[in-house]
Give the backbone structure.
Amino acid sequence: MSEFSLVVTNLGKCYRSYESELYRFANWFGFASSKYQDQWVCRNINFNLPKGEAIGIVGRNGAGKSTLLKIISGVLSPSEGNVQHGGRVSAILELGLGFNDNFSGRRNVYHAGGLMGFSVSQIDGFIDDIETFIELGDYFDSPMRSYSSGMKMRVAFAVATMSRPDVLIVDEALSVGDAYFQHKCFGRIKAFQERGTSLLFVSHDQQSIQTLCQRALLLDKGVVVDIGKPSKIFDHYNALITDQQDEVSIDISEIESSEFQVISGTGQAKLTSTLLRNEKGERVDVVSVGEEVILEADVLIVADIRSLVLGFMIRDRVGNVIFGTNTYHLKEVVTNPVQGNVYRFLARFPANLGVGNYSISIAATSGETHLEGNYEWRDLAVLFDVVNNAKNSFVGTSWIDTNIEVQTK
Amino acid sequence: MVHTIRRSRLALLRCYGHRRFIVTSIKNEFVVRFAESKLGALWAVIHPLSQVLVFALVLSNVLSAKLPGIDSKYAYAIYLMAGILCWSLFAEIISRSTRLFIDNAGLLKKIKFPKLALPFIVLGSSLFNFMLLLIASVVVFLFLGHSFNLSTFWLIPITASLAIFSIAIGLILGVLNVFVRDIDQGVPIVLQLLFWFTPIVYPISIIPESYRWLLAYNPVYPFVDAFQRILVNGLQPDYEKLSFSMIFICVLVVIAAKVYSSASEEIVDVL
């Protein structure tokens, strides 16, 4: 326990609905009846969170994310298993925290603080800090009904983080605030983390999970499907949302040490070969900045399909998308491809990328997005390194030709 | 049983930890009322007083002759006010605690805090309303030339037991209402019937002798009777009637504790 701030063991939550509520009442008084139905929303959830670590929770709508967070924060009680935590858990589950619109922000801080178990004198000690943090000026003393949702969110965040919790739970609430305040929030979260606060973070935003979390947990249909590096979890998640039909197969194979490749899709078209060539037509995996390259992908038409779109995405080392497009946007859709034929796509582009390691995900789909008909989606289809031997040195993930002129005045 | 006691004790202890929150919530409630309407909490007094006024104006000629024991011109008004004072505390606690968990669903689903703090907030603010009405009634009584004696202090234990009685019923109804929302609709009707089945507006003498035994099954009647005896007649309450009520209160408290501790985890699931 000492090195963990949160240990979740065999956690499960089940909602019991009775044929008639009378059976429920009878059950309270010790007359057990069998006229009920159990619906498990999550089950067999095991994970732990070392002190100071952040874990992202990813999953489709209804996967059980909110239920899990509510159990961990203590709002719901688990039906089986248990949650152990080494201190105070603070949660921003939704906006509001029981704010009363008739009260000023300041009064609501005291009210919500009291709800969380703080005494008035304790809150007195935090209030100046909260006031400067949320930067609402005179609004802090006017009724909350005049607040925008972003302003309410500022107060809610400040209340939940007024004293450093041991575990902080953030459920998508941050997405409401403006970019400026989001940066402030992340700054505060990071500062807490350095002092040992663990973070549970639910978001559909890949970028913030990847920048904030060391690990991610993929929840689907109430069970933990996968747990690991955020970039790998998001590949798996993207494969999951690609097609909600069950016939889709998802293969995850380990390639090149610790990277994972995710292949998903209906298989109506298959990627038979994917590689990167230079201008001379030679296969390459090291490219210099600005060099003209060709991405070559062969697609075999397995089933009778109406249209074929090929898309690709260049990602950086942690999985952030640098650039992506497809033949739908480039107006090169193949309509009524012939079954059994192989179509070769040649995407030519300059590698205007910063120094580093990149991967390309390639997808053969039926339309604009991979959510419609996904024939095959292949992450890490091509891996390559970018080196700088032609340009002046620079930082960042993109090469932008810059010319600086110096003038004396 | 042991289980119930342990869990109730734990819940009460957690409430005690949130006692300051309970106090500020009660305070906030009055602040809100004044923020929402100019007269604010005074409406809690104006409402029952206007009810007394209406009944007094409409019925005093019909009923004043039948009030035994006192011969003041305003005897009926005083009688009415004593009964309504008692009834308003009972009715307010019951109707507010019936909707207690439903109205606070948003809160219960978002923040971990002792749920049992909510009935205490209802209890506190209802008692505060009661105090306001009591003070207003005393002022009216004195204005009408009615005097008080030492037995008035009996109001303190009577009010306390009435409050416990009401909150126990209210808590049971509040919990059941989460699961069966029909209770929400039924409670005002039952309260209405009970109001007219209790000698508040009319004296007990008006009920035919052959039906009077029914009053023994009216759980609110001993309290209303005690209020009337104390405030109108300056007498001590009827111990015999109240002793049954005390046993009834104990039973109710046990049932409330059992229902609450069995249901407390399921409440948030269903909300």
Remarks:
- The first helix of chain B runs from residue 2 to 17.
- Chain B touches chain A at residues 17-18, 20-21, 24-25, 28, 31-32, 35-36, 104, 106-113, 176, 179-180, 258-259, 262-263, 265-266, 268-269 (CB under 8 Å).
- Chain B is about 75% helix and 0% strand.
- Chain B has a mean pLDDT of 83.
